[in-house]
């Protein structure tokens, strides 16, 4: 999904099955007070709900470019959000404000049919599906889109959750030769998946972006991000990297085949280099009535929080409590001692960090990466202060007799001021321990690729929306703390690089374990708790997003999964 915020979806798993509600309450109409007042400060609020008129342009203001537009190389919620407009998948995680998404058919006629032993899932494509050039969308194109994501030497951020359950442990992608035997396409409209073990939640995995069709003849590898071929209601008319993106209607998209996307605006114009403070002021002042943003927390600055109660701004503020969590990751390959990591966690003044985010209006302090809307939830066991206050005496006691690093690095996205401010709080906290924390600004478009590479700093903020579109704890635990596909090292989206031979080995085995959803997810939570005893991650906040929109914007809801305005429902009044 995203955390601008690109949320690492490595920071995004689209799984929504068992959970039908959320502690934030059910979706509300346009008159709800939501996050701008009322008895429940975390209630959802949809702006101008019920609009159905087509036409107009929506201006999307963003502080940085997308990490990628290639559905096969994306684990980011911002890409997943805009991706709804130009690509479709077998199934789809459909958003409703304030609720975990519901998995619905998209390119497929239904949610799939499982064999009696649970090892095979079969999908049939709808009739009259076409790309932007009028050519037919085929099952072979979907298979090829999945095959590409096995080429991890090319697509370093390719989603792997679907791949992990397929009987394809040795497959290396289409560029290495060979066929993905675990996926069959007996005809143009049928696609069959062969699994290693039964996986009842497979329809959710079929909503991941790697089930988006990619015609092999159009595959330009890493250059595919510049113009992915559209299977959705919009297509790319122009893309100037780092500056602007223009989407126009796809004339060969048939709304009769797509009940999930309203496709109301004629065009979407994305500005990709506007400073967040500028975005915030433009939206608050309504200088562009057709504007929205996908930046985290609606690009609002901490100093803007009080203005959300203004009666001219309050009705234009979409809001909702998300299934997304912000965390700090320790690089466990550089901070190797669990006691040192534990001490650093105890020393953090998370309450002051919350102030840098804008206070409780922007999120609830949490001691867990998981939340109570997920199947298998177990209350957190970390000994962090529930109110976010530091425990310096306990931290210093843990460090007695330890080799304590004199200097550590904190990496942050240079497009977001509060992430820099977060680092200044940590600097003050760690100074009490005799540690000098050095700040490392990372260009926003390269942020998560940096965290995944050799330049990962000692500490880095990240976010995850796996629990947002998920009924299961596995979809948070496995990507963030789990092992690689072969079980030999840490997984591709495991930013902290956590790997313990015993705990990671149990996670690897659990991937292939049969059983009830609740039973399995409880086991995943138990392993999560064991891993967290070594403090590879420090949970910060479960995010509440307030996003101010222009006065002509309609149907503006904050996606529980996306953490920003859901582009698939938005409209604009002419």
TrEMBL record:
Signal peptide as annotated in the record: 1-24
Domain of life where this protein originates: Bacteria
Protein name: Periplasmic oligopeptide-binding protein
Keywords tagged on the record: Signal
Parts of the chain that traverse the membrane: none
Any GO BP: peptide transport
InterPro entries: Peptide/Ni-bd, SBP_5, SBP_5_dom
Domain Solute-binding protein family stretches: 102-471
GO cellular component, one term: periplasmic space
